[in-house]
Automatic annotation (TrEMBL):
Signal peptide: none annotated. Pathway: Carbohydrate degradation; pentose phosphate pathway; D-ribulose 5-phosphate from D-glucose 6-phosphate (oxidative stage): step 3/3. Pfam families: 6PGD, NAD_binding_2. Its EC number is 1.1.1.44. Keywords: Gluconate utilization, NADP, Oxidoreductase, Pentose shunt. The lineage of its organism: Bacteria, Bacillati, Actinomycetota, Actinomycetes, Bifidobacteriales. This is 6-phosphogluconate dehydrogenase, decarboxylating. InterPro entries: 6-PGluconate_DH-like_C_sf, 6PGD_dom2, 6PGDH_C, 6PGDH_Gnd/GntZ, 6PGDH_NADP-bd, NAD(P)-bd_dom_sf, Pgluconate_DH.
């Protein structure tokens, strides 16, 4: 026994993570089902640190010092379950199995329970940053017991990304907490990408700007409140020219967005928890609509009617001063919509924590997202500050900083939604975030009417504004009211 950590599964993610571990002074046992991957890793990168290559899982486990700690990075689903069981068969009480894949948090809860019953620790660990992050420093969200964190914490801290000197990893909570938080991270990522895409569309279709010019705008935005990895790479993508055709890269890419399911999980979970995550939801639905290419093709053939001033923002676009002012409006609309989407994502984590009995430190979660992960941004410092101030508040939108940010952005936001709607340009996250915001502000919602309808057709009862209790009106009778339970 000589390795303090092991990695099972040496495809893109596992190989990068192993190298990162070895480069940071860990002795890393490595195992892959087919030895060829292990061999490649040793041949190409064996000199980067101390590796202990194993031909069999038995050899792998035997090379680990106790408590044995093994990170699984194999294909999600059945292969992961299989590997967890194989490892558990070979390990002893107190050893730690880490699943660092993108597992569904309910699977993690199930697996943790089963492995705990066998006396071992099971840690579901969310890892963000892709292959490059795994190699150069990811943001990591481990769940599991406090005891497993004692062993695993220093190892993960050694390889995590750093933001302002702090490692981008923290013990999130028990069982599935880490994978839950990673899931919401991905959902927020969907919303963030969609608001950027909507901004691009307004400049492209609405204002008629060329991709290169729009890239410059995003570069400028990246200097301010919107400073983030996603805005930065947006500029990079928009500047890129297709080598084959000489056309802007953005114009030769099919407009059908893919997805692997974490965004969908975030929305499904939010529905179960009854937390409105309209920004994330619309972002997932937008990818769905984009992927429905045949349906959109048919709609075009059918010639579905649009506004008279289809697509363009007309005289606004041809007046340089108004055009410039509108770009600033878009920036503010993006910022406000993004704040709403994050506020909703954080609400989902709060509600998830209540439902599943986790003690989530939302400020710490915002801090570990500042580096290494896809949504890394300066903005997360503000969220972290909001939660660190210790005040109990129901939404990030009530925090003084964000409250003021939206106050300053809202006129622009409303102008953008109005203009886009008038021109027939879809802005699902801009518009739904604004509706959510206005709904939240409303002292009185039309839900009273819905209660009336429900009581009429289904005797579902309603509450009165002037008296407590549940009431039902005899709609088919004399219209009198009865108090439930009377
Ligand atoms: P893949 O998901 O492509 O999986 C390939 C690896 O799984 C290979 O090592 C393969 O071994 C192994 N494997 C497949 N089936 C089995 C099995 N039945 N038994 C044992 N081993 C098996 O690899 P990636 O590196 O892309 O991803 C690894 C994990 O990380 C996945 O869970 C994925 O969801 C997650 N991931 C996370 C990302 C992130 O940003 N956090 C990004 C990408 C992935 P062999 O070589 O022998 O075929």
């Amino acid at each position: 026994a000589e390795a303090n950590i092991g990695v099972v599964g040496l495809a893109a993610m596992g190989a990068s993570l192993s190298r990162n571990l070895a480069r940071h002074g860990n002795t890393v046992a490595v195992f892959n089902r087919h030895y060829s991957r292990t061999e490649t890793l040793m041949n190409e990168h064996g000199s980067e640190g101390r590796f202990v290559p194993a031909h069999t899982l038995q050899e792998f486990v035997a090379s680990l010092t106790r408590p044995r700690t093994a990170i699984i990075m194999v294909k999600a689903g059945d292969p992961t379950d299989q590997m967890i069981n194989d490892l558990a068969d070979l390990m002893e009480a107190g050893d730690i199995i880490v699943d660092a894949g993108n597992s569904y948090f309910k699977d993690t809860i199930r697996r943790e329970k089963a492995i705990r019953a066998r006396g071992l620790h099971f840690v579901g660990c969310g890892v963000s940053g892709g292959e490059e992050g795994a190699l150069l420093g990811p943001s990591m969200m481990p769940g599991g017991t406090d005891e497993s964190w004692e062993t695993l914490g220093p190892i993960l801290e050694s390889i995590a990304a750093r933001a302002e000197g702090e490692p981008c990893v923290t013990h999130i909570g028990t069982d599935g907490a880490g994978h839950f938080v990673k899931m919401v991270h991905n959902g927020i990522e969907y919303a963030d990408m969609q608001v950027i895409a909507e901004s691009y569309d307004l400049m492209r279709r609405g204002l008629g700007l060329e991709p290169g010019r729009i890239a410059d705008v995003f570069e400028e935005w990246n200097e301010g409140d919107l400073n983030s990895y996603l805005v930065q790479i947006t500029a990079q993508v928009l500047h890129h020219v297709d080598a084959r055709t000489g056309r802007p890269f953005i114009d030769i890419v099919k407009d059908q967005a893919g997805m692997k399911g974490t965004g969908t999980w975030t929305v499904q979970t939010a529905l179960d928890l009854a937390v409105p995550v309209t920004g994330i939801g619309e972002a997932v639905f937008s990818r769905g609509l984009s992927a429905s290419a045949d349906l959109r093709e048919e709609a075009a053939r059918e010639g579905l009617a649009g506004p008279v001033q289809e697509g363009g923002l007309g005289d606004l676009a041809s007046d340089p001063d108004r055009c410039k002012a509108f770009i600033e409006d878009i920036r503010k609309a993006l910022y406000a919509s993004k704040i709403v989407a994050y506020a909703q994502g954080f609400n989902e984590m709060e509600e998830g924590a209540r439902e599943y009995g986790w003690n989530l430190d939302l400020g710490a979660i915002a801090r570990i997202w500042r580096g290494g992960c896809i949504i890394r941004a300066k903005f997360l410092n503000r969220i972290s500050d909001a939660y660190a101030s210790g005040g109990e508040f129901g939404s990030l939108l009530f925090d003084p900083f964000f409250k003021q940010a939206i106050e300053e952005a809202q006129d622009s936001w409303r102008r953008v939604v109005t203009a886009a709607t008038g021109a027939g340009i879809p802005i699902p996250v801009f518009a739904s975030s604004l509706s959510y915001y206005d709904g939240l502000r409303s002292r009185r919602l039309p839900a009273a009417l819905i209660q009336g309808q429900r009581d009429l057709f289904g005797a579902h009862t309603y509450g009165r504004v002037d008296e407590s209790g549940a009431f039902h009106t005899l709609w088919a009778g004399d219209g009198s009211e009865i108090r439930q339970g009377d």
